[in-house]
Amino acid sequence: MFEARGLKKSYGALAAVRGVSLSAAAGERHGIIGPNGAGKTTFFNLLSGEAAADAGDVFMDGKSLGRLPPDARARAGLGRSFQHNSLFAGLTVVENFAIAAAQRTKLCKIFWRDFFACKEVFEEALDHAHRLGLGAQAHTRAAHLSHGAMRQLEIGLTLALRPKVLLLDEPTSGMSPEETAAIKKLIRRLPEELTLLVIEHDMDVIFDLASCITVLDYGEVLMQGAPAEVRASPVVRARYLGAG
Amino acid sequence: MTRAPEARDPLAMVLAAAAAIAWLFTGDFGKEVLSEVAVFAIFAMSLNLLVGCAGLVSLGHAAFFAIGAYAAAAFGVFVNLPLWTAMPLAVAVTAVAAAVAGFFAVRLSGVFFIMMTLAIGQMVYAFFLNSRAFNADDGMAGIGRVDFSFLGLDSGEPAVFCAFAVVAAVAVFFLLRMVARSPFGHTLAALRQNEPRLRSLGCPVLRCKLAAFTLAGALAGFAGALAAQHSGFISPDLAFWTVSGEVLVMVIIGGMGSLSGAALGAALVILLRHHLAGLTEYWVFYMGVLFVLMVLFAEDGVAGRFSWLLRKLHRRGKNV
Questions:
Q1: Cβ contact (<8 Å) for B182 and A86?
Q2: What is the ipTM of this complex?
Q3: Which of A45, A86, B148, B311 is the most buried (most CB within 10 A)?
Q4: How are beta strands A55-60 and A29-33 bridged, if at all?
Q5: Is the Cβ–Cβ distance between B46 and B232 less than 8 Å?
Q6: What is the pLDDT of residues A188-221, one digit of tens each?
Q7: Cα A98 from Cα A87, distance rounded (Å)
Q8: What's the predicted TM-score (pTM) here?
């Protein structure tokens, strides 16, 4: 069970998020939609601890994440991907995954072994690259990947954390239809017990994947419900989907 | 996984060979200079862990150099401990000091981190400058050297102390190379590239930075403890911010991120200082010109240019 209660955040006079609550059962696929500037990414930043909430709290399995910094939330099992790719650009795909795995397994504290000789993380990293369809580019530097492959790496890095709750911020942004299809397939193959919150602009993707949708508008919850209800709602149609 | 060819580090071998030749064929003055190079190589390599690996630019690293020097001297002079005991104690004291300073400094980044380390460095300078126990601005003289009489050697001899300093520098090189190549070292490098991402992967970034800061400080303290023995005299000037600036220049000229580069940077700056100072009163000016040229045309420093040259020669060799 993952829950956000009354999260608020203002930047000066701008109230970006004004009291958003949301709960997702284990294994739920929860979509978050809303027009540009609705506060979706800010909401994610409050969940992951990148930004400190002015009010409200986040709970994972009943435990408050309160004022924990992002790294502590990640260790508690909360993973996120970023809207704008945030990679280790100078490292290869495998090295990116190996660094991620080294954080999860606490190998990162070891200062006497040779990193490249740490088979446990590199085998996992290579395996992970293959499963994400990045096998052919495993030894390519992240900076030299295509946009689609960077997006896959972006999501893959977060998965290397083996999170219980996964926050995906616009996973298919800027992707071609084929790349979008690959990401959809990737998301569908995620472990069933994983709770997924996904911000997405591609309505086909979201209505296809999500079992529950939250519509944000001006930093507030406009509506929460099953995809069919949201699609049918006159308010949402007027505000967002474009009446037609 | 395979390493890039430069990871075999031919530059380090060149430097080791040059040090051996200098030790064999120079007189006492040459050996004094070589000792100084070895001490500053340790100092610069320790700073490289912060600047080159973790991307933390410190302008207060001399504080730990001075604390190491004063601690080694104080344990010798006040408590009458032999330097074999005083030196490790000095390193421990410096590590504690670096951990305390780092606790505040690593919370900041960018220019604020630089300003914080600068302030910490100047606080240490002001402390030694005003502390009666440490003779204030007179400094402390008459500091002995480690005792090698159990080997039948006299460390007062430049050749003996110089060999000791060079061996110490080589040991620090291997220690820091091990750290740089470890999962911890690669985590530091990832931190330099993308701190928010590393944090979101669960890395306790503050603790990582603090560990690096403490280790770098402790090794700077070790360099300081050697410097105190080498000159037999210490003063608050060791902690002054220009010393921190000078060791930063060594790291940048040598090539940020390259351990052997940092050692080479130390050698270049010290040798140029000795030679240029004899030739012209404007030696600082010429050093400045060199630094400007390096930063403009060779961001990766002499070490970077060296491996570029090697790669080029290697390719040409293949084509022939």
A1: no
A2: 0.90
A3: A45
A4: unpaired
A5: no
A6: 888 889 999 999 888 888 888 899 999 998 888 9
A7: 13
A8: 0.91
